[in-house]
Write a structure and sequence with these properties.
Strand content: 35-45%
Distance between the termini: 117 Å
Largest sheet: 5 strands, mixed
Helix content: under 10%
Oligomer: single chain
Mean pLDDT: 90
Structural class: mainly beta
Low-confidence stretches: 1-18
Number of helices: 1
CATH topology of the largest domain: Jelly Rolls
Number of strands: 31
Number of domains: 4
């Protein structure tokens, strides 16, 4: 342990930086070179694998000392390639060479030296920018570029180590840039409609999954080019992104025009509880130009927003509104409370039969409040805790139809509304 510490301190104080080998020091980890994508690489602290027929067991063009490896995949056409080496910066240590060497090889068996065939120009003793060229590369084929530091000359004890930039180009690797477009058959939709988007790719031989965005937020990932949603709002923008080519992927993206979503607002009013046989007025509202109530046979006018309905049992009414071909429906439930028996007539004529308006079951709601009105809205009776001891006896009011509002003041806010006929 002490020896290691002393070595590290000597390296630091001597100005030398001790770095780890790059992964592409090994042929099996050859770094893929992509057209139009220059990269910075180096062979600092690289070494060789020198066993028989291993990756560095060759001696044409040069004999490797500290090799690094790169991989190049040709397109469907093949042909000529150019590999540009630029911005060479050599390590300048005593006894260290300052020349770079490089060769392009085809390997029948990946990284097995006994299957190599050198392709194109051979380079050694390179001290500045240079280009390696090769003709007649096969289509859809993988080639290897091996780069090494020279180790030759008077007083040279260590092979050259260099940082440099690499870029490949030429018909053998050039690709037509892929494009992406997005379309929908529903540029104008109704709220909650299913809207389908389709991505169309050109010059994209293989593709990754499709990432779908709404207003820039990722909402779905699909393996096919289709996306469906029911959650769009007016003005939303759907976009899609993915990559083309599994080797050296190229990202592509496209945006659909903002969608127009028609929103129909409709409200069927508040649910209430009434006695059996009560006539109630429904209270609908909407921003649409047409509407209809159902069930139609219980409603006085299906095309009115505030029609009357007579209910014998608990009933849910639907108000459907329509605008520009888009519809929306709201519901209201009129509940019939059979715990209370609210008669719709009484006859205060002094015969001791039905002389007062008696409501059975109201004793279970001691906090109730009763109000009675004439047909013109004039209040004629009001009391809290309506009961047998506080029944309305008509108070010399004329025969006719009256209206009542009974608030139970229970936990559910139950309210009864209806008509009452006084008979003399």
């Amino acid at each position: 342990m002490r020896t290691v510490v002393i070595f590290l301190l000597m390296a630091l104080f001597s100005g030398h930086y001790v770095s780890a080998q790059e992964p592409y020091n090994v042929c099996q980890n050859a770094l893929e070179l992509c057209p139009g994508n220059p990269i910075s690489v180096n062979n600092i602290d690289a070494n060789i694998t020198g066993c028989v027929n291993c990756e560095d067991d060759f001696n044409y063009c040069f004999a490797p000392d500290n090799s690094i490896w790169f991989q190049i995949s040709t397109n469907t056409v093949g042909g000529t390639i150019q590999i540009d080496f630029t911005n060479l910066v050599f390590e300048a240590n005593p006894g260290q060479d300052n020349e770079l060497q490089a060769a392009l090889v085809e390997a029948t068996t990946p990284c097995a030296a006994n299957t190599y065939t050198q392709i194109g120009s051979c380079h050694f003793d390179e001290t500045g920018n240079f280009a390696l060229t090769a003709l007649g590369l096969l289509p859809n084929t993988t080639y290897y570029l091996v780069v090494d530091g020279d180790n030759n000359g008077v007083g040279i004890t260590d092979p050259a180590e260099c940082t440099f930039d690499l870029e490949i180009s030429g018909p053998a690797v050039d690709r037509i840039p892929p494009t992406s477009s997005i379309s929908t058959t529903t540029p104008i939709a109704c709220e909650n409609d299913i809207v389908t988007y389709t991505s169309t790719l050109t010059d994209c031989p293989d593709t990754s999954d499709f990432s779908w965005f709404v207003n820039g937020n990722l909402v779905a990932t699909t393996s096919d080019p289709f996306f469906q949603t029911t959650s769009l709002a007016d003005g939303d923008i759907v976009s899609v992104s993915n990559t083309c080519y599994s080797v050296c992927p190229i990202p592509v993206q496209s945006n659909a025009p903002a969608i127009s979503v028609q929103s129909v607002q409709v409200d069927a009013g508040n649910s209430i509880t009434v006695p059996t046989g009560s006539t109630v007025q429904l209270n609908g509202s909407t921003n649409a130009s047409s509407w209809v109530w159902s069930p139609s046979f219980l409603v006085s006018d299906t095309s009115a927003l505030n029609p009357f309905a007579t209910v014998e049992e608990t009933t849910t009414f639907a108000l459907m509104a329509t605008e520009n071909g888009c519809s929306s429906t709201a519901y209201v439930t009129i509940s019939v409370d059979e715990l209370l028996e609210i008669p719709n007539t009484f006859s205060p004529n002094g015969d001791n039969i039905n002389d007062s308006w008696e409501i059975d079951g109201l004793e279970f709601y001691p906090d109730n409040q009763m109000s009675i009105f004439t047909r013109w809205g004039q209040k004629v009776f009001q009391t809290a805790a309506y009961s047998k001891s506080k029944m309305w006896d008509g108070e010399n009011h004329a025969e006719g139809v009256y209206y009542f509002v009974l608030d139970l003041n229970d936990n559910n806010g139950t309210q009864y509304k209806g008509t009452l006929t006084l008979i003399r």
